[in-house]
Amino acid sequence: MLNNSIQVQGLQKSYKQLHVLNGVDLEVERGSIFALLGSNGAGKTTIVKILTTLLKQDGGTAAVNGFDVAAKPDDVRQSISLTGQFAAVDEILTGRENLIMIAGLRHLNDPGQVSDDLLNRFGLTDAADRRVSTYSGGMRRRLDIAMSLVGKPQLIFLDEPTSGLDPEGRIEVWKIVKELANNGTTVFLTTQYLEEAEQLADRIAILHEGKIIANGTLSDLKKLFPPAKVEYVEKQPTLEDIFLAIIGKKKES
Amino acid sequence: METINKYFFNDMGVMLGRSMRHITRSMDTIITVTIMPIMFMLLFVYVFGGAIQTGTDNYVNYLLPGILLMAISSGIAYTSYRLFMDMQRGIFERFHSMPIARSAPLWGHVLTSLVSNTISVIVIILVALLMGFRSSAGVVSWLAVAGILALFTLALTWIAVIAGLSATSVDGAGAFAYPLIFLPFISSAFVPTESMPPVVRAFAENQPVTSIVDAIRALLSEQPVGNDIWIALAWCIGIMIMAYIFAMRVYKKRV
To answer: B14, A81: Cβ pair inside 8 Å?
Structure first.
């Protein structure tokens, strides 16, 4: 229990007649990367919204960093950060101003220094004083994640962090997520890309029709299938391999 | 709870700083807000003015209060627009998942509305001065005028908040302002209500704009304000409180 960043039991949520969550149970270990897989409309975002105190559940309990989300939302908010599905950046402000704004709202002592460090870490120093509306999708997402790291929260939620990104942008985000976990931050991410979960997650849960139907490490999940049989398949490069080769980037794994 | 309330003004300050940057970086919003009232002022003073009998020799003086209300009515449409965009873009979700005062993002928009409307009101008064507006009113009267305009702005801003929070499209977020912009036409803002047919006159004399216009006009021309100022204040404060309660209810439901 103490080792868990997130502890969810019997979570229920309905929108009018539509039952989105029918008793979701899950646990996320501190310092791990947890991926919630599911198709569109499976209820991934609903779970994220409940865990980040944006939405109240109808039933069940959820605790984040030991605080009940319904009873102690302010304590939960102190220790988490959300990067929502749509880049939550201010387009009219510059990258630097966005970071300084968040540092101000987190009541940090030296917002300028905090923003300089993050700009540097996310390769945005050159673009720091340009308005975000001029940023590419990948840069915007990087800034978005950087904004979530202001104040060093213990737990960060990434709701479909790579949707709408090009392959390069996606690989950049993957790299960031891995670095986060290496530094001890717990990452809860949702995705509809199986490859993403496979690449990143320590544990994967599959959400289907409002319930977690599978939960475990990648090798646990693989055991659910019949043993692999050996087949000879000619390895053709995927279009993604070709694309990345042409533009001269090595895919990192 | 305690730590969060302690930072309320800090958080609100950050929010205000944010939206003020929005305004200064899109000066076109100030221009759009001021240009229409200025056009109306030019039109009424130099085209229709000669035919309108107001019983005063300076029609700009007569016209200015109504023009200012019109500018504020169109200015608040941007508050509603900015709020709507924030709701859409997900930045409100970020704010609300952070340990900040719940209503700080909303108050930031409200204060911004107050500041940006003040700027447009000043611009219009300067133009009016060029067109011959003169007032011998003292500091106290001017402060009273400023107070009434601020209350009027706040009352309409909270209405704009309701619209911005509940709109489903960008167009919808701004559309509510149109009837408010045209309200001054059916009031004592442009012509004396005595010249209107009975039904229209009854409406004109009992709607908020007339009492507010009359009160400001009296203050600026150093005439006795009589009951107008109390009726004007009652309207502004009444609308403000009603709209505030309703807006907060919508806000709590949305976040």
So the answer is: no
In this predicted complex, what is the ipTM? 0.81
In a domain? residue A251: no
B83: contact with A, CB 8 A cutoff? no
Total domain count, chain A: 1
- Which residue in chain B has the smallest CA separation from A84? B90
B122 to chain A nearest CA, in Å?
25
Rounded CA gap, B53 and B59, in Å?
Answer: 9
CA contacts within 13 A on the Cβ side of B8: 8
Question: Tens of pLDDT along B165-215?
Answer: 988 888 888 888 888 888 888 888 888 888 888 888 888 888 889 999 999
Could you list the residue range(s) of the whole structural domain that residue A234 is in? Answer: 4-246
A46 touches A69 (CB < 8 A): no
Q: Which residues on B lie below 8 Å from A101 (Cβ)? A: 14, 17-18
Residue type, position A155, single letter: L
Entry pTM: 0.82
Other C-beta atoms closer than 10 Å to the C-beta of B233 total 18
CB-nearest partner of A101 from B14, B26, B96: B14
Q: Do A203 and A28 meet the contact criterion of CB atoms below 8 Å apart?
A: yes
